[in-house]
Amino acid sequence: MVEASGTAKHDPTAALLALLDLSPAEGAQTDEEIFVGASARQPGRRVFGGQVLAQSLVAAMRTVEPSRDVHSMHGYFLRAGDAEKPITFGVQRLRDGRSFSARRTHAYQDGVPILSMIASFQEPDDGITHQDTMPADVPEPESLPSTAELLGNLDHPVARAWAFERPFDIRHIDAPLYLSNEGSTEPRNAVWMRSLGPMPDDPDLHRAALAYASDYTLLESILRPHGLSWTRPGMSVASLDHAMWWHRPVRVDDWLLYVQSSPSASGARGLAAGRIYDRSGHLVASVAQEGMIRIPSA
Predict the structure, then answer these.
(1) Is 72 a catalytic residue?
(2) 217 C-beta neighbours (distance < 10 Å), count
(3) Which of 155, 171, 214, 285 has the least CB density, counted as fewest CB within 10 Å?
(4) SS3 67
């Protein structure tokens, strides 16, 4: 796509699909099956955690029978990744049973792992069903401002990256924490989110893209009660781990409500949990993450 000025227009959805299109590393196999993925440019050169989670999941999916869908993953962020370098993904086939398969993926840069993840896959099956109820009286996403509307006029590289380079439209229910912390002081957060453009009809791509988006705002439930925003001078925030469970089919190009809460913070760490609903009220996924949050002493 080209703008009237003749410059290429950035397409965040196409960029996301390119990130999730891993290539095989021919001739590089050891006891792992090897894939290679690109990294999205970031203002601070640090790889976005959701990106490496989604890519690690795609690598594991490439080694599993197509009839088996991912239902859970548990990952640890081991090192900060460099967004200027590609990432190598090594997948080990841990188990293939009658109904379940398990895979371990390591994401490598410079020969050392930056993330270690185990994912489990299952053949479709019937069974008992129940779910938490979607919160009521939530404003519709169309009534809320987008990140581009909130930050698009700011002349700052991070603000412009948040506004225009993310492949997802994120709309906060309460006041967003990009530049300041206003509104609720409860350890809770909620956003509507969907991909900026339509996605292919590949259920695995939608599951992987949901893993990508699940890392955007989850730690905000920890920041809210302490008056912290993402731009607090001297604050250091890093995701330590990430767990996710897929419950029902999902499309990320339809609006999803991501409800988040933090039961505890101590020792420069905070725990956050999230539930993701589609617009019809179906609980499609659950998420948990512990993050390191250090603030400068007074």
Answers:
(1) no
(2) 22
(3) 155
(4) coil
Determine how many CB atoms are found less than 10 A away from the CB of residue 53: 25
pLDDT tens digit sequence for 176-199: 999 899 988 999 999 999 999 999
Beta bridge partners of 193: 170, 256
User: Of 124, 123, 170, which is closest to residue 151 (Cα–Cα)?
Assistant: 170
* Residue in 39, 56, 120, 215 annotated catalytic: 215
Main-chain dihedrals φ then ψ at residue 13, nearest 5 degrees: -65, -45
Annotated active-site residue 289? The verdict is yes
Q: Contact, 80 vs 45, CB < 8 A?
A: no
Give the CA count within 13 Å in the CB-facing half-sphere of 219: 24
68-94 pLDDT per residue, tens: 999 999 999 999 999 999 999 999 999
Is there a contact between 197 and 272 (Cβ–Cβ < 8 Å)? no
Q: What are the residue ranges in the chain where pLDDT is below 50?
A: 1-5
The SS3 assignment for 204 reads helix
Domains and CATH numbers, the chain: 1-124 (3.10.129.10), 140-298 (3.10.129.10)
Task: Quote the CA–CA distance of 20 and 248 in Å, as a whole number.
Answer: 21
- Please state the separation of Cα 180 from the chain's center in Å: 23
Please tell me the number of Cα atoms within 13 Å of 107 on its side-chain side.
33
| Dist CA 166 CA 44 (whole Å) | 15
Among candidate residues 120, 239, 262, 286, the one labeled active-site is 239
Residue 254 appears among annotated catalytic residues: no
